[in-house]
Design a protein that fits this description.
Layout lengths: L1 H6 L1 E3 L7 E12 L14 H13 L5 H5 L7 H10 L11 H16 L1 H7 L6 H6 L6 H11 L7 E3 L18 E9 L2 E12 L4 H18 L3 E15 L3 H8 L8 E4 L14 E4 L14
Parallel strand pairs: 5-6
Antiparallel strand pairs: 1-2, 2-6, 3-4, 4-5, 7-8
Helix pairs in contact: 2-9, 5-6
């Protein structure tokens, strides 16, 4: 955030919000040193873990998420529903009326399966591409390849499917974290993510923790130790309406990283449950709210 604040250029964006942006940046986290969950503001691990399990299941409907109290994907299908039903002009985004109507939408997604199927699905986003990219279950294949050919340079899962990009407008945007690659050396599994577009204040703390956790899960089921998580960015940006929150966070001192303990009995990537994750020693400053640019 400090690098973008000091060196970023003003750039317009799809949402009309405006950003400070840099192109090309990389961070590296040694997972043996602790779980890389941001400590300068409290991050909701429950949302991260359930979202990751949702991806791994190949699910693309927000119903699973809202049933588990996770609301990070709600804005996009809600806006789509307002648009499809002719209500978009009645509820300006983030107005009190919009927020109240959102609660009714989420409640109906939870309670009405037919409504959820019609309006809660995001289209062929991450989970679909991971598990069914033109008929290929990439996630199952990459776990098998790590076990059987750990020196392969093809341990890649891609969410970027050009054919489906136009369809993904239902979710509001094509995949931001678009491709990841595993790497095995000396009994350690590392993962590098390429993220084409990165909301560094709001989204990136989730992305870091999510892919760190995924790396640990895949390492466990393939009999390896976690190595590094390498986070590579294309357009890394701070939205112009997050800059005061950025300054607030940069003024805070960091705490020691927590430790993530995973149930050692699980040896199947697709068998993990939320209860299998135990975050220990997480100390963080209070959460800093900021609006999502949709």
């Amino acid at each position: 955030m400090r690098h973008i604040r000091d060196h970023g250029v003003r750039k317009e964006d799809r949402t009309g919000t405006g950003t400070l942006s840099v192109f090309g940046y990389q961070m590296r986290f040694d997972l043996a040193e602790g779980f890389p969950l941001v400590t300068t503001k409290k991050v909701h691990l429950k949302s991260i873990a359930h979202e990751l399990l949702w991806f791994i299941r190949g699910d693309t409907n927000i119903r699973y998420l809202v049933e588990n109290g996770v609301n990070i994907w709600n804005d996009w299908p809600f806006q789509s529903w307002l648009n499809q039903t002719g209500q978009i002009d009645d509820y300006p985004m983030y107005s009190p009326e919009w927020r109240e109507h959102m609660k009714l939408f989420v409640a109906r997604v939870k309670e009405d399966e037919a409504f959820a199927q019609q309006y809660g699905d995001l289209g062929p986003v991450y989970g679909h591409q991971w598990r069914n990219f033109e008929g290929v279950d990439q996630l199952t294949q990459v776990v098998e390849d790590i076990r059987n050919n750990p020196d392969s340079r093809r341990l890649i899962v891609s969410a970027w499917n050009p054919k489906d990009i136009p369809v993904m407008v239902k979710s509001g945007l094509p995949p931001c974290h678009s491709l990841f690659q595993f790497y095995v050396t000396e009994g350690r599994l590392s993962c590098q993510l390429y993220q084409r577009s990165a909301d560094v204040f709001l989204g990136v703390p989730f992305n870091i923790a999510s892919y760190a956790l995924l790396t640990m899960m895949v390492a466990q089921v393939t009999g390896l130790q976690p190595g590094d998580f390498v986070h590579t960015f294309g357009d890394a940006h701070l939205y112009s309406n997050h800059l005061s929150q950025v300054e607030q966070q940069l003024d805070r001192a960091t705490f020691s990283l927590p430790r993530m303990v995973i149930n050692p009995e699980v040896n199947d990537l697709f068998a993990f449950q939320f209860e299998d994750f135990d975050l220990q020693g997480y100390e963080a400053h209070p959460h800093i709210p900021a609006p999502v640019a949709v």
